[in-house]
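fold-stage: in
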Amino acid sequence: MGMAVTYYTADMVRALPDDGQRYEVGGDTLVQPDLFVVPLGEARTLDWSQMRTLLLAVEVLSPSTARADRFTKRRLYQEVGIPTYWIVDPDARTLEVWTPSATLPAVERGTVTWRPEGAGEPLRIGIAELFRPI
């Protein structure tokens, strides 16, 4: 007897209770970055279904997610034109900066600077601060 497979749409997944599980979607694309930034107008709605314009997506590598973060998600973010994608590598203590047209990342070891369109001041983060013990 075969195993039943259920296919979900992005809207169906959004409607599910937060049970800690991850769900695959069919024709829709739904990703869950570790951290993301959306325009203020979308964030103020406090409605996840309205947060669709990623300005920055951030993934922190772990053994179980590294391949998907570095290849699958990176290519997806590039294809759909996400302006900036950061991959934080705790083992190497680096931050990779990807843009839609990049064939290789800018690897930051000192300071990363991010200035989205329309921002008054850039965000500057010391890489060492990301990895300091808390």
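fold-stage: in (second)
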Amino acid sequence: MRVAEHGLRTIAAKLKVELTDKNVTMPIQFADWNKLITGIKNKIDDLRRLPNASEKEEGLALYSDIANQAEHIKDLWRNNICHSRRTFNSNEALGIMERIKGFMQRATELENVL
């Protein structure tokens, strides 16, 4: 989960997400997953308002996919793992690791977008 968290923070930084907590600017490195995902989704909404272009569409598709994956990771596994709410057998753990690997590989595609 820490690997995915680093990826999520990198995505937020690439999008220049600005976060606040109680009306005070918050550095990305101190934000929780929910704030990061919300900030990323807000930036995606900003991208939707840009004039149409193939680069915009490519960026929207990629960022939307990554934001959705991050939200699923958070809801399906991150909260349960980090808060010791449940355990996973070895097959489940390997499956989770593969999904995180896919998330991180998808995130590397950001280097060429917007």
